[in-house]
Design a protein that fits this description.
- This protein is an all-alpha fold and 344 residues long.
- Helix 3 runs parallel beside helix 15, helix 6 runs antiparallel to helix 7 and helix 9 packs antiparallel against helix 15.
Length: 344
Amino acid sequence: MAAAFCNLNPGSGLKKLNEYLLDQSYITRQVSVLSFTLKTLAKLPIYSVALVPLTVGSAAAYFQTGICSARRYFVLLASSALIITWLNLSNDVYDFDTGADKNKKESVVNLVGSRTGTLVAAYSFLALGFMGLTWASVEAGNMRSIILLACAIICGYIYQCPPFRLSYQGLGEPLCFAAFGPFASTAFYLMQGSTSEMNYLPLSDTILSASVLVGFTTALILFCSHFHQVEGDRAVGKMSPLVRLGTRGGSRVVKVAVIALYLFLFAFGLIKALPFTCILLCALTLPMGKMVVRYVEDNHKDKQKIFMAKYYCVRLHALFGAALAAGLVVSRMVTKGYVPRLII
């Protein structure tokens, strides 16, 4: 046995130990990358832009008709989350192609190291999400809703995908407003207010007004997400509004946008497009609106701190949307005499 031990090659043992440690290090790194990637995909703030249009649209349908399908709501929520995942993953892929995400550590392409894999996953999510939306539309018997949702998806495609890439022309915010506001919110209203027996739900001034407000807060999130990317966007020719205006000008736009949001709210209340409960509950979110304005004004020059501006906007978006939906539901339950004006 002593002879056997003497014949062992020390160099071979050290080599195997080194290989083992390298393998363990590689596995640890891969687990860390996978964990961070999953956390990036699972961030709830990202999906508030799916939750709010659906919740407001469903509340408007309940306000109009007194009906709302819980099963359809959750199918639509899951499908919308899949569509948002496609939107974010494909955006990472195409920004990777142009170099806009070169130094973006949270880019999924940079994390997983595979452009093709990320793109295939993105369009798989899109296909699954659209299947769910189509099923809900067929069950509701309302084809207008799937047309509106298709328009919302087209807005997302031409926003970021070649050969259009309209976000590089500074048109991202108008497309975002249309996709999540008038298109998506109205589509969810039509789906949730329709049944196989009553499949033609007219549009009202209530849903149109609510969809404008939802689109407004969603576009504000996108606008504020570019504050920390101005230099990188300019370098690759992405002429976002903040590249054109600068961060100081952008901070003024945020202030005007938040003031305009509440002016629109009160105007819709005055013309009775929205019930008083919506005005009251949404007015309670004013401190959050002021917080967004103050944070952007104080930190627009600090690239590290201004990164959080979009999350302040997400809070405003979520709170404002929840208040708007709650106001519609409460108004239906308390003031049954209120009848919204029909438009189409």
